[in-house]
Amino acid sequence: LIAQNMDETNWLVQARAVLSKRFGAAPPATINERNKRIRFLLQRGFTMSTIQPLFTESYRNEADHEIFEQ
């Protein structure tokens, strides 16, 4: 049951929600701010393979479109 639930979890969506709750929707303004957000997510158990897409331009743009479509 637990393994099945973990397979169904979309970790990218979860990480984005945690990041947004803590830091808001604005992208990091500096490299230091970006690193701070990455450390924050790592400390909460997210992997770099989950975190990295959150900081790419294409993913941010996709997330913005999802917000405006709702």
Structural class: mainly alpha
List how many beta strands DSSP finds. 0
Poorly predicted ranges: none
Strand content: under 5%
Structure description:
71% of the residues lie in helices and 0% in strands. The radius of gyration is 13 Å and the shape is globular. The N and C termini lie far apart (32 Å). The longest helix has 13 residues, at 11-23. It is built from 5 helices and no strands. It has helices spanning 2-8, 11-23, 31-43, 48-51, 57-69. The model has no long low-confidence stretch (mean pLDDT 80). With 70 residues, it is an all-alpha fold.
Précis, in short:
With 70 residues, this protein is an all-alpha fold. The protein has five helices and no strands.
Task: List strands and helices in order, with pairings.
Elements: H1 2-8, H2 11-23, H3 31-43, H4 48-51, H5 57-69
Give the key terms.
single chain; 70 residues; mainly alpha
